[in-house]
Amino acid sequence: MLHRAEIIAVGSELLTPHRVDTNSLAITQRLNDIGIDVRAKAIVGDDRGDLRALFVQALGRADLIVLTGGLGPTEDDLTREVVAEVLALPLVEDESITARIRRRFERRGLRMPEINRRQAMVPRGAAVLDNPNGTAPGLVIRREDKTVVLLPGPPREMKPMLDVVLREHLEPRTAGMKVIRRVVRVSGRTESHVEEAAQPVYSRWTAGQLPVSTTILASPGQIELHLSVRSDDSREADSRLDDAVSELVQALAPDVFSVDGRTMEEVVGGLLRDRHLHVALAESCTGGLATSRLTDVAGSSDYVERAVVCYSNRSKVDLLGVLPESIEAYGAVSDKVAIEMARGVRARAAVDVGVAITGIAGPGGGREGKPVGTVFVAAVWKGEPWARRFQFPGSREMIKFQASQAALDMIRRLVSGES
Question: Quick one: which of 181, 177, 178, 179 has its CA closest to 244?
Answer without folding.
Answer: 181
